[in-house]
Every structure is written in C-alpha cells, then in structure tokens.
Specification:
Layout lengths: L5 E2 L10 H10 L11 H13 L5 E5 L2 H12 L4 E5 L4 H4 L4 H5 L4 E4 L2 E2 L2 E2 L1 H9 L10 E8 L10 H13 L3 E6 L2 H8 L14 E4 L10 E5 L2 H13 L7 H12 L3 H20 L6 E2 L7 E5 L2 H9 L2 E2 L1 E4 L2 E5 L6 H16 L1
Parallel strand pairs: 1-13, 3-4, 3-7, 7-8, 8-9
Antiparallel strand pairs: 2-10, 5-6, 9-10, 11-12, 12-15, 14-15
C-alpha cells in the first residue's frame, strides 16, 4: 500500500489476516483428494454446523458474486423473481449474474430504507405478484443483504418478520452476507439467531472482505436447496479442484472467533470515523453506521479536495462519498482522514 495515501475505498483493498495465510501454509503439506472430498472440507462442514448450531452444508466458492448468483439459482426457476432492496448488490453491482446463472431469473427491487427491504412493501408486492399466472414472473426468493449496502444492519426481529412473510408464500430466504461478521459483531447475537432461527434458508458467507484471501462460501440450512448446489457450482465453473486450500481459509476464519475479532476492528474504526464526522457541520451521514461502511454527503469542492490530497474513496454521486474501514484500518488513519475532512470543509 502507498503510505502517501489513505485507503478508504473498500474492505476488498485490505490485507489478508496472518491467521489465514498460516492456515494455507499448514494445508500445503502432502497430497489430498480434490473437489471437496478432502479431510479439511469435511472438517469445515462439521465446524460450521457447530458454529451455526445446526446440521448444514458448506460450499466454498471463489467469489461473493458467484455465491449470490448460484445460491439464488438453486432457489429459483428460469421464470422466477427475486425480491431485494434497490441498493442490493445483486441489483446494482453484479452484472445480472443472478439472471445469467438462474437461466432468466429476474431481480425485482422493492421499496425499503437504509438498504433494507420494507415488510409493508414486500407484502404489497407479494399480494399483486400474480401467483400461478403464466404471464408474470413467479416469486421464488427474498434477498436480504446483511449488513446492507448502505451500512445498516437488520435486527433479528426484522429478519424473522421478513422471512415469515416470504415463507408464507413459499419463497426461500437468501442472505447476502458479504459483511456477515460485521453485522454479527454489531448485534452481538449468535450466528444461528441471525440466520436459520430467523428463517434464513441459504447464506452467502463473506470471508474475503474481512481479512480473507481467496474464498467465500455458500452455507445452506435448507436440505432441499443444498442438493442442487453442486450442480450449479459445476456448471458455473466455480468448484475448487484443490478444495482443501479454500476450506482451510474458512476454518481459520471462524476458529477462535477470528472473524468477529476482525469485524470488531473494522466496525470500531467506522464508529470512530462516524463520531468525528458528526462533529463536522459540513459533512452529513445519510445512513446509520452499524458496520464498517459510511456514506457521507459533502460539497463537490470538499470531495474533490480530499481526492487531490491522496484520500482513496468511492463517489456515489457528485456530493456523496463512501468510506469503508478495513480490519487493518488504524486509528491514526481515521484521525488523518477526519483532519482532512474538517480542514477541507472550512476551506
């Protein structure tokens, strides 16, 4: 990383946690059968079943986009519709991967706030969906992003309410957990309480953004869906041949609560940044800061100045910036950014 810059573009830009690297080195001994028939992948299924307090199946996968698209493909039909928030990653940033891998599966954004799906909007859309009518896409799944793409976190009660509405109409519930550990650290609940106990059928478990290296995972609580995943992974070209190296990363990720420690670090940096921004009149947070992302309104001039001063961030509009704190973001980096924001707002 260039030490003359401040890196707040994305948690994808951070380093891998040393524990993940060490796990790969340990796995790199001798030989092992491929495609998931190895001992580490078997251990992974047993370990995550313990972590989530339920018998489940885990499928390591190279990317979060692949996890979302193939999970939803396994839930749906080519003429199905997936409901999500307008800001959901499957709607804004995955190049219609859901439609491609789902053979025509439609992404249908519905109203919400702070990147969440609104229960009233979901119920309204399900009421007029036209179940059984051949000229309409048939609702098959609900997508919940946890934490949301505006940095907010669904409570377990919110997940349960939305899941109940979906299940009443026989929809599967998919959780895009690219920042699952950040949400878990914020709520302080168990992984089970935030997933299957609240009605989630299938989870895209993010590892990469939170100190991982080369693997995310699909975690399936519903056995009817799990039986389809292998076929979608193979057809999509997303089955690891040397699966033990992917499984080793995910095992290290959850071992000794590493995932929560890393998430707490990035969440804490985001809170430090949010508290400082709240003291600057010329900057305004547009959504709750409950994980590690901040969305900040500032003047065009102020944002231009930050960019020219070496601050790396993404603009979501002329006056809207996204700042993301990584697990390895330091307090000093946050202080430097706040100083630049405050100075620029007075210039």
């Amino acid at each position: 990383m260039n030490h003359q810059t401040l890196e707040f573009r994305s948690d994808n830009c951070g380093s891998a946690a040393p524990e993940i690297i060490e796990a790969l080195v340990r796995a790199n001994q001798g030989s092992a059968v491929g495609y998931g028939a190895d001992a580490l992948t078997s251990d992974l299924n047993a370990t995550l079943s313990d972590v989530f307090e339920s018998k489940l199946r885990v499928f390591p996968i190279p990317t979060g986009t692949g996890a979302n698209a193939l999970a939803l493909a396994a839930c749906g039909t080519p003429f199905g519709a997936v409901y999500c928030s307008p800001e959901a990653h499957i709607n804004t940033s995955e190049c219609n991967a859901v439609g491609f891998f789902g053979g025509g599966l439609k992404v249908s954004p519905i109203d919400g706030i702070d990147g969440k799906v609104c229960p009233v909007s979901l119920e309204k859309n399900l009421t007029v969906a036209g179940f059984g009518q051949a000229h309409k896409s048939q609702p098959v799944a609900l997508n919940l992003v946890q934490a949301t793409d505006l940095g907010a976190v669904y409570s377990t009660e919110e997940i349960s309410q939305l899941s109940a509405l979906a299940h009443a109409r026989k929809l599967s519930v998919h959780m895009d957990g690219a920042r699952f550990a950040n949400a878990l650290a914020h709520l302080g609940c168990s992984p089970a309480e935030m997933t299957w106990k609240a009605g989630v059928d299938i989870l895209s478990l993010g590892v990469t953004k939170n100190g991982g290296l080369l693997s995310d995972a699909i975690v399936v609580f519903n056995p009817d869906i799990a039986d389809k995943i292998d076929f979608h992974l193979r057809r999509g070209g997303m089955i690891w041949s040397k699966m033990r190296f992917a499984s080793a990363q995910i095992l290290a990720y959850v071992e000794n609560d590493l995932w929560l420690r890393l998430a707490r670090q990035s969440n804490a940096a985001a809170q430090q940044l949010a508290q400082g921004i709240n003291r600057i009149p010329a900057a305004r947070l547009i959504a709750p800061v409950q994980a590690n992302e901040l969305f900040v309104e500032m003047s065009v001039t102020a944002l231009d100045r930050l960019a020219n001063q070496g601050v790396l961030f993404y603009r979501r509009g002329p006056e809207l910036a996204r700042f993301v704190c990584r697990w390895d973001t330091t307090q000093e980096e946050v202080k430097q950014l706040l100083a630049l924001i405050e100075t620029g707002s007075h210039a």
